[in-house]
Amino acid sequence: MKRLLLWLGLLAGALAVHALLGLWLTGLPLWLATAVTLLPFALLARRLEATPYRQQLRALSSMIAGWRDSDFALSISAPDSPELDHLTRELNAVGTLLRRERHSLVQRELLLQTVIQSSPMAVMLCDSDGHIVLANVKARQWFGRQGQLEGHTLAEASSALPPSLQSALEKDGESMCTLGQEPDLDTFHVSRTRFELNGQAHYLILVRPMTRELNRREAAVWKKVIRLMSHEINNSLAPISSLAHSGRTLANQHGVPSLDRVFDTIESRARHLNDFIAGYARFAKLPPPQPEAVDLRSFLTPLCGALDCQLDMPAAGQHGWFDPAQLEQVLINLVKNALEAGSESGDISVHWLSDPAGDVLEVRDRGQGMAADSMERALLPFYSTKRSGSGLGLALAREIMEAHEGYIDIRPREGGGTVVSLCFERANPDNASAINR
Description:
alpha+beta; disordered C terminus; EC 2.7.13.3; nucleotide-binding; histidine kinase; ATP binding; Sig_transdc_His_kin-like_C
């Protein structure tokens, strides 16, 4: 480029000298001939000098216009002109900073969307007119809508809900709402907060299921009571057993065999009470589950063989995500309950069911079944329909399932008997941290 300009300059100089000589020979004064000759070249040089500036300024203008349209990808090469070089470099640096900030903002927005959509709470954002502008997956499930909630009014979306819940959704502040009947009550915490967004009033509505949390707190209270009772009773049982043994020894030494029956009864009842308290202590000291990927065939086949019950064989290679030791204890208790309910071992079957919502392990029997009121109370600690029952088998099963972020369901079986379902969320090792909390 510079060589081309040099040759053009030489050519222009030669033409200028030639024109100057021609004008001077025609009789014009030398200064006038010189001015007439050099003026076009001076104007041409000025234009050539200004052209790179115009091009660079035009490029910078295009880059700034792209910023206005949120396009920060364009950058400009630095010119040869020192006057524009600094400005170009600074604007390129600003563009790079804006590009990074935009990328960071997009990533934060994606993270926020992921958190909102995966939240166990129903989350909705409404404008001042009551129209829903944002709703997560849980909100759509909760309102029983498969499609989008956005665009509908809150009144339309909640029209099928109980009146008490509709009232809680429309009331500012926080409130608790209870639905259903004893003992199958569902409790919800409803929060409605007003705030300004882009100068407009909006309402953030959060609906949080509290039933499981309340059940956990209730179980924690039961466990504390059991630990206190176990401590006090064990402190009393130890001297009773010791005194009974000493009394038997003294009675034998003095030849009073009639007291043997008395001491046998005392020792027998003390052992029974000790075993009874030990069962409650196991419930109170249930450790957190240690879930792992479990091959279902390898887990269920020997267990069902030992329990002498039927197995609806899962597909080969199918896995569940649970604590195998705790789930084994649950299955043993359920099969034991089925046998005590009068079911033949051959009529007891274990089934593993899978669908996109989660996995279900069912125990089905042909026993005498349960009355409706007994079925409603079956999961409560200390409730039992058997004279010698502790009321801990199903309560322990419920505690274990809730520790796995699942639940237990009991229903009558068609044709007689009972079906107990252990319902898990979709098996996923990523849930391990949540389960272990």
